[in-house]
Structures are given as structure tokens and as C-alpha cells.
Predict the structure.
Amino acid sequence: MTAALHRSSAARSGPGGGARLHPVVALAMIAAGGGAVLLLWLQDTVYVSGLGDWLTNAGRITGLLAGYVIVVLLALMARIPAVERGVGADRLARWHAMGGRYTVSLAVAHTLLIIWGYAVTAHTNVVHESTSLVLTYPDVLMGTVAVFLLLGVGIASARAARRRLSYETWHFIHLYTYLAIALAFSHQFSTGADFVSNTRARWLWSALYLAVAALLVWYRLITPIRAAFRHRLHVVDIRRENADVVTVFIGGQHLDELRTEPGQFFRWRFLTRELWWAANPYSLSAAPRPTMLRITVKMTGSHSAALLSLKPGTPVFAEGPYGAFTAARRSRRKVLLLAGGVGITPLRALLETLPAAPGELTMIYRANTDDDLVLRAELDWIARDRGAMVHYLLGPPRAGSKDHLSAQRLGKLVPDLRDRDVFLCGPEPMMAAAQTGLRAAGVPRRHIHQESFTF
Ligand SMILES: Cc1cc2nc3c(=O)[nH]c(=O)nc-3n(C[C@H](O)[C@H](O)[C@H](O)COP(=O)(O)OP(=O)(O)OC[C@H]3O[C@@H](n4cnc5c(N)ncnc54)[C@H](O)[C@@H]3O)c2cc1C
């Protein structure tokens, strides 16, 4: 089905937005920190000789890297605005998950290598060496508990286990990482060869940990509380879109100061008895206004379903804005907005605001049935107003070239596909199918920008 549209209107661009840390720069900074950690090891190492020494030094390196990577992981999750905007929350979450696997592996390797190395050097066996290390040094005992905690968090986060756990349970288990970091900290200084006699290294290491702790407290605690007082966010109205989807209108003051860009999301905490403890991410489903924000939510679980019973006046805490799925990613005049299901929300806001002349903006909205389309009347209205085109593609996925998102079908609907930036948001299988279709149609990877609703 196609809603065709003519007539132009001046497009509004999103507000300024603020500094962004490019992902490559972020990775370069992380790598430089890793290099500095290796230098710290090197400066304390005159020479390495014999199996015991090699093992112990490998243990030292893995231990230092584990201590470094874990603090980087916390920094990635500190919600630093320039990092969230530049790197993007979904990419940050992927890095965080990957870094988590490295940390657990490094911490386990550190433990095993140190024990083995000491045992070889002392001509004893590993069981005896482990017992004596744990019983002699209380800090090492705490470090050992930390490794077991990290292992537990790692196992709970593995894909198979993660699927069986509710988000809340997984999140709660994840918080043990903080305890692990606290437990492991002291053994680094009391027994770590690179710190025991190096005051400057101890200061720098402590400064790194303190700086990240300060960032966490500032951005995850103080900033949302200050924003709550400044902006006085509260529920204004609820609108049911269909059986599964609800729109929440959130009023407030001075919201222009947030410099929110269409395509971004907030983590929303609704202060009711059931919802106050959870902060779930939802994208804005309309351009932000100085006194009103709006989200549109599919009721998939306990949090989203509870939104339906929100009462006007309910206070709201919002962390954000976050996300890099904005006009800033665009590098071409022509744009295709490709949505699946409730993934329409950020794209609806972009359709309204991306600067474009008539004919430059096309939207494809994919859903299984007509009932699954949300905000359709608004989309048609905006498209008509802006001289954009909206195609609705309905029906279940099909095999091969017959699929709605195959290169052939996409190419027929949007003949100049290769000349466009594509903004893509929808369920994971839909996004995978769209990626395949777009790439086969010749759209370069760098012109495909996507927002994932799963962290
Ligand atoms: C950047 C981003 C933007 C999003 N925008 C929208 C939107 O505009 N509209 C919409 O309907 N959905 C959106 N989502 C998805 C939405 O956040 C989840 O569907 C919702 O949090 C589910 O919570 P639940 O308790 O109802 O369901 P559950 O069944 O308890 O959770 C389902 C899944 O949602 C995810 N989830 C739950 N709670 C959180 C949380 N606090 N933080 C991160 N992930 C969580 C987990 O992957 C979980 O397995 C967005 C997600 C992300 C990451």
C-alpha cells in the first residue's frame, strides 16, 4: 500500500546536540590506555627467565589488563553524553558485552597463571600454592571471591542463560560486578608487583578508578535528580494506539534545554508503586517540544504493560537524551527511513524533522498485519505535508527474492536506493533481513544507520 504525497514544507532540523566522541577515537583512547598499562608492566620488569617467571609475568599482565578493562566497561556505561551521542547506546552495549567476556577471561587467566607461576617457582603444586596464597593474604582471598563473582555474572550473561532469565534478574545479578571490583581493588596494591613499590602508579591507578566512579555518580545519579527538579516531568495523557501499543505524553518545563534530537531516547522511570525501580529505554515518537515529550510503547512485558495504567500527573524521571540515531549520521541528501513494527517510533520523529526537499524522503514501514501499524494517520499526514512518500509493506516474511525486504522489492519501491542514507529500526530478524536486502541492492554499509531496541 502506498500513501503518495506531494507538497513541500520547510523542514525543521533537530536542535544542536553537543559534543560527540567518534567511535574510532573512543577505541583509540581505550587502546592507548591498554598500551599504558603494558608500559607499567614493562617498566617494572628487568628480565624474565624460567618457566615460573614467564607464567607469573603473564599473570601480571592479564591481571593489570583485567583491572583496566573492567574500569573501561564502567566508563562505557556511565552515560557520558558525548560518548552516548557519538558512539551510540547500542554499540556501547555491544562493546560492554564483549569487554565483559574479555574481563572474565583475563581475570580467570590471571588467577590461574599467577598460581601456576608461583607454584613452579616455589617447586610446589598448584593446590598447595592456591591454599597458601588464599590463607596467607586476606586481600588475595577477597580477590578470589571477586573472580568467582565475575564468573557468575559472566555465566548469567551468556546467551543461553540470558534467554532464560528475566531482564530484572539478570540486571540484579549484574550489579555484583560492583562488589567484585571493590573486593579486588586492594589486592592490586598489597600484592601487585607493579604497584607495591611504585607510588606514582598507585596514585594514577586510584585516580582512574575514582574518575570513573565520579562519572558514574554524576551522570547516573546526580544529573537525573537535578533534571527532575529542573524539568518537573509528569504524565499528561495516555493514548491507546491498538491492542498492544500505548502512547504516553509527558509534560515538563524548559525541555528545550535538554537539546534532544529526534531519533534519540531516554531511560524513563515512572514514579508509581510498581514502576519506580525500573528505568526502561524508549525513543521519542515525535519531535521534542519545549513543554512536551512523547513516547509510543509496545506492551511486551511487565514494565511496558504497566504504562497503560499511568495516571495524569504521575511524576517521571528521565535519563537522557541518549543515542546517535539522529540527523547527524546523515551524509546524503536523500534518505530512506525503514521501520519494522514498533521500530517506527524514532523514524516517525525523523520523518517529521529531517531537513529534506520534496521527493528526498521516503519511508518504508513493514508490519505483519494492518493492525500492527501504529501512528499511521500521523505518518500519512506528515508525509503529505512534507512531500515525502510512505510505503506500507504488510504480510509475513517470505523466502528469498519474494521477501518484502529483498533487494529486488526494495529496488522496485525505491529506484534510487543506492543514493540514499538508510535509517533502519525494527525487530532483530527484520533488521537482519533489511541489512541483507540493502547490501545486495548495493547500499554501502556506511550509509546504513540502525537503532537496535535490544541491548
Ligand atoms: C534504545 C532503545 C529504544 C527503545 N525504544 C522503544 C520504543 O520507542 N518503543 C518500544 O515499544 N520499545 C522500545 N524499546 C524496547 C523497550 O525498552 C523494551 O521493550 C522494554 O524495556 C521492555 O520492558 P518490559 O519490562 O515491558 O518487558 P520484558 O519482557 O521484561 O523485557 C523484554 C526485553 O526488553 C529489554 N529490556 C527490559 N527492560 C530493559 C531496560 N531497563 N533497559 C534495557 N532493556 C530492557 C530486555 O532485552 C528484555 O529482555 C527500546 C529499547 C532500546 C534499547
In short: The chain is about 50% helix and 15% strand. The longest strand covers residues 234-240. Residues 1-16 have pLDDT under 50 and may be disordered. The two ends are 32 Å apart (CA to CA).
